[in-house]
Amino acid sequence: MAEWETVIGLECHVELNTRTKMFCACHNEFGAEPNTLTCPVCLGHPGSLPVPNREAITRIVKVGVALGSEIAPHSLFHRKNYFYPDMPKNYQISQYDLPVCVGGHLDVELPDGSTKRVGITRVHMEEDTGKTSHGSASGRIHEAESALIDYNRAGVPLVECVSEPDMRAPEEAAAYLRELRGLLDSLEVSDVRMEEGSLRCDANVSVRAAGTDALGVKVEIKNMNSVRSLERALTFEVDRQLAALEAGEPLVQETRHWDEDSGTTKTMRSKEEAFDYRYFPEPDIPALEPEEAWIEEIRRGLPELPRARRTRYAEELGLKAEVARVLVADRAATSLFEETVALGAEPAPSANWITQDLAGLRKEAVVADAAAEPTVGPRHIADLVALVADGTLSGAGAKRALEEAFRSGAAIADIVENRGLRQVSDAGELGAVVDRVLAENEDAAEKFRAGNESVIGFLVGQVMKASGGSANPTLAQELLRERLSR
Ligand SMILES: [Zn+2]
Questions:
Q1: Beta strands in 169-253 (DSSP E)
Q2: Ligand 1 centroid to residue 122 C-alpha, Å
Q3: Is 137 exposed, middle or buried (0-12, 13-18, 19+ CB in 10 A)?
């Protein structure tokens, strides 16, 4: 059996969250009533003229600078010609051989903790198309009785980021996509919501004999709407290609569609049907020739990028690598953490509360579709950390206080008082509870005296329960041992 090597490259489409569309003044907004955000320009009426959105160009330059790309001194818009009902001009304004950003790289943290540099081929600017919904009970295009078109998305600024074929496994591609999403999120250029389509990803994948340079037969996969489906689709596709190669069956260069339900990829169109887009320069828009000083200004204004932030959190603030990774992947969590630490809170426990308990509560609220007003702020987290550190709150008591704060937004100190969560660290007060627990669990006490050490855990648990979670567990154990050894 030959040794094979997988080769993967990704093309990611990113909708920018500018206030207005790419070439007109229509609002750029997700989820509005269909066909309410349109005008003659984005509907492609004859004689209407496109005017590039300066903010969109600023943002693509920001992306390029963050990826270490060269910002082209001269780039051009081209018309990409093809017919599709959701594209009323019958061409898309895109870029061809002169994109805004050329080259660059993204350093990706792999699941094993190592870092891999993935090359960026180009980043170019274009406009999005409208959105077609097929009217059929199954939602499947070939069973549709009608198609509905929403032009609100037509003309939304779209950045396409093309990677080099540098990834060697589906997990690497997933890690790249996560890293890119985090980078774009930190730049605040896009909502990067894969489920809403503001970040979309196509993958090119082929398999070749290890040690060779020539690329195998390339297959493009479309329609993956989460990092997980990207990884699943690539895993399926690599296995499919390997099986064909091992069996000596020919592979065809084609575009395949990922079907989430069946977990398989299916042929969409073969190479024979490939379009000829007949690119030519867009005559209505002059070349983009950004000034060096303007690019420098954008470079200086870049925020701390995720990779640098993770390193700082781990090396300077003492966070575990995994915690730093989870924290930095979420912009809201990152700012809450920064604000909490700015209040003087210990970084490590603050990060744990934010990435574990608070994240858990938020997830539950999303599942329950509860109104998700941000009720927990930096003061809450800082107070929790301080009260656990000085022994006022036990871990269990702190969890209850956080839950209450998440629901009501009340101050931690008030919750601790009103709910009686203050940890009982008074030997006299807790001693009474311990005596009661021992009286009620004579069997367990006997077992301990007979040498069964592990029973102590059960007894501490009983004390915690009897005290309503307010006992100091360390003190409870001490008092138990002291009484049991009498
Ligand atoms: Zn418009």
A1: 199-209, 219-224
A2: 27
A3: exposed
Give the start-end residues of each E strand in 185-279. 199-209, 219-224, 254-259, 264-270
CA of 179 to the centre of ligand 1 (A): 32
CA distances from 239 to 170, 233, 251, 299 (A): 11, 10, 13, 42
Closest Cα to residue 207, out of 181, 245, 173, 155?
245
Question: Tens digits of per-residue pLDDT, 388-436?
Answer: 998 888 888 899 999 999 988 899 999 998 888 887 777 788 888 999 9
On the question of pLDDT at 272 being above 50, the answer is no
Q: Which pair of structure tokens corresponds to residue 107?
A: 């350093």
287 alpha carbon to ligand 1 midpoint, in Å? 22
Q: Cα separation of 344 and 87, whole Å?
A: 54
Res. 136: pLDDT tops 80: no
Q: Which domains does the chain have, with CATH numbers?
A: 4-294 (no CATH), 304-418 (no CATH), 427-484 (1.10.10.410)
Residue that has been written with the tokens 């008092």 in this structure: 479
Query: CA-to-CA distance for 365 and 373, rounded, in angstroms?
Result: 10
* CB within 8 Å of 39: residues ≥ 6 apart: 24, 25, 26, 48
Q: With contact defined as beta carbons under 8 Å apart, do 93 and 50 qualify?
A: yes
CA of 41 to the centre of ligand 1 (A): 5
- The Å distance, Cα 189 to ligand 1 centre, comes to 20
The pLDDT of residue 155:
97
Res. 177 pLDDT band, cuts 50 70 90: very high
Ion ligand 1: residues, Cβ under 5 Å? 24, 26, 39, 41-42
Q: What is the mean pLDDT of residues 235-242?
A: 96
Closest CA to 206 of 197, 221, 219: 219
Ligand 1 geometric centre to CA of 302 (Å): 30
CB-CB neighbours of 384 under 10 Å = 28
CA of 18 to the centre of ligand 1 (A): 13
Q: Where are the beta strands (DSSP E) in 210-307?
A: 219-224, 254-259, 264-270, 280-281
How many helices (H) and strands (E) are present in the chain, helices listed first? 16, 15
pLDDT digits (tens, 9 = 90+) for 429-457: 888 899 999 999 999 999 999 988 889 99
Kindly give the distance from the C-alpha atom of residue 155 to the centroid of ligand 1, in angstroms, as a whole number.
7
The span from the CA of 331 to the CA of 333, in Å, is: 5
